[in-house]
Amino acid sequence: MSLLTPLTACFIPGRPNPLGDWQDSRRRAVDPLAEPRSTAGAASPTLGSRSRIALVGLMILVCVILMACGAGLQGAVTMKLARSKSSPKDASVMIDEQYVGPLYYVAAQGVRLPVGTHRVSIVRDGYFAWDRVVEADRDDLDLDVVLERVPD
């Protein structure tokens, strides 16, 4: 009478696997490209693994070409604002009617704009609004901002 269950019998060396070829079929179900184990060609890669290596190499080459052409990223340019000493540093910067941040921060960090036409507005109470329509193309934009005080 054996006290071994099929589960413990799997782990005893020298005994046949009661589950048969189940583990190999499970491995192939998880990785459909997996080749059956063979001891004949163990020193060199099989044709299946060569195909996978070629496929991975081709995918890397395509990614490098797309990134070099700029197709992997949406085109964008950097807009830098130069603030004059007379302009208040806490003025609000708006791009396409969206608040971006205070003027001092945007002037220090710059802003990435997608390619296209954009409306840049800088507003502050007590100053005339500074509005420009800019065309973001391939070149970075450098804008000088001078806010003028509203006369009393």
| Main β sheet profile | 4 strands, antiparallel
Q: Averaged pLDDT, please?
A: 74
Oligomer: single chain
Structural class: alpha+beta
Could you name the ranges where pLDDT drops below 50 across 5 or more consecutive residues?
Answer: 1-11
The ordered H/E elements are: HHHEEEHEEEE
Radius of gyration: 33 Å
* Principal-axes shape call: rod-shaped
State the end-to-end CA separation. 107 Å
So how many helices? 4
β-sheet strand percentage: 25-35%
Portion in helices: 25-40%
Main-sheet strand order equals 3-2-5-6
> What is the strand tally?
7
Question: What brief labels describe this structure?
Answer:
3-stranded mixed beta sheet, rod-shaped, alpha+beta, 4 helices, 4-stranded antiparallel beta sheet, 7 strands, single chain, 152 residues, disordered N terminus
Structure description:
The structure is a single chain. By secondary structure, this protein is an alpha+beta fold. The chain is 28% helix and 27% strand. It has 4 helices and 7 strands. It has helices at residues 6-9, 22-30, 47-69, 103-109, and strands spanning 76-83, 92-95, 98-102, 111-114, 116-123, 130-136, 141-145. The strands form 2 sheets. A 4-stranded antiparallel sheet has the order 3-2-5-6. A 3-stranded mixed sheet has the order 4-1-7. Strand 5 (116-123) and strand 6 (130-136) form a beta hairpin. The chain is rod-shaped. The termini are far apart. The relative contact order is 0.13.
